[in-house]
Amino acid sequence: MSPTAETATRLTAVPTAPPPVIELVDVGKVYKTGSLEVVALRAVSLRIDENELVAITGASGSGKSTLMHILGCLDVPTSGVYRLAGYDVQSLDENVLAGVRNRAIGFVFQQFNLLPYLSAWRNVELPLVYSGTPTDERRARALAALAKVGLADRADHRPGELSGGQQQRVAIARAVVTEPALVLADEPTGNLDSASSADVLRLLAELNGEGRTIVIITHERDIAAVARRIVSLRDGEIESEHHPRAPTAGDLTPAEPTP
Q1: How many CA atoms lie within 13 A of 11 on its CB side?
Q2: In the chain, what are the domain boundaries?
Q3: How far apart are CA 235 and CA 63, in angstroms?
Q4: Number of H helices and number of E strands within the chain?
């Protein structure tokens, strides 16, 4: 088994006593521009176990985006240790990390990041294209993912023909089409109205209910409140952690249907 396949298998497997999906130990991140140094994270230690729904929140400049990039293997710490499903991320080469990002982590971004010239199902299939999945299987899995987010009848529509809420649902379908164990959602409702936001949060909660670990990065307290654990950052450090009440159906259901 190749290192990429082994890492992805480790992330999606369910052993008797699994390691944390995410484990940070004294992680720091410093950006350097010439003689200028900007400290984005300071000795952050955090553990997120399998099937948790966690929100990471904080004001602009608190370090939450930097933390998301590290969690998603898009950046590496300057100091400390990041273990993903038990693997020390700093010990993995770029080819392995690319496979992990493609197969084991699903990303949902505020800006949707859909290709405007491709239909919804073509956008959803992209991670499968990169992993070499056969054409027929790609289409079937993309259509199934769209059906899961309630967009089976929009499969052939391009992003410009969809509402913002529908575009984000396409992005969620793309994030989960590879069946990842971990979904990272960075400000997933930032460009949506309240009804569409509730719809997206409901979908993320459903994915969590199916066994996926969900991490939501947000500056909005009402969005963070749907999580089972909230981690608050300030000036690159964890300021607090708390467990809010469990969300009710009313928290996750839009007041009116999303168009």
Answers
A1: 31
A2: 3-17+50-75+93-248
A3: 7
A4: 9, 10
β 182-186/105-109 pair status: parallel
Q: Consecutive sets of 10 residues in the chain, 259 residues long: mean pLDDT of each? A: 65 67 96 90 95 93 93 93 91 87 89 94 94 92 94 95 94 93 92 89 91 92 89 94 64 44
**Pairwise CA distance, residues 101 & 103, whole Å:** 6
Cβ–Cβ contacts within 10 Å for residue 231, how many?
Answer: 22
Neighbours of 157 (CB within 10 A): 16
Class at the top of the CATH hierarchy for domain 3-17+50-75+93-248: alpha beta
Exposure letters 122-143 (e unless 16+ CB within 10 A, then b): bbbbbbbeeeebeeeebbebbb
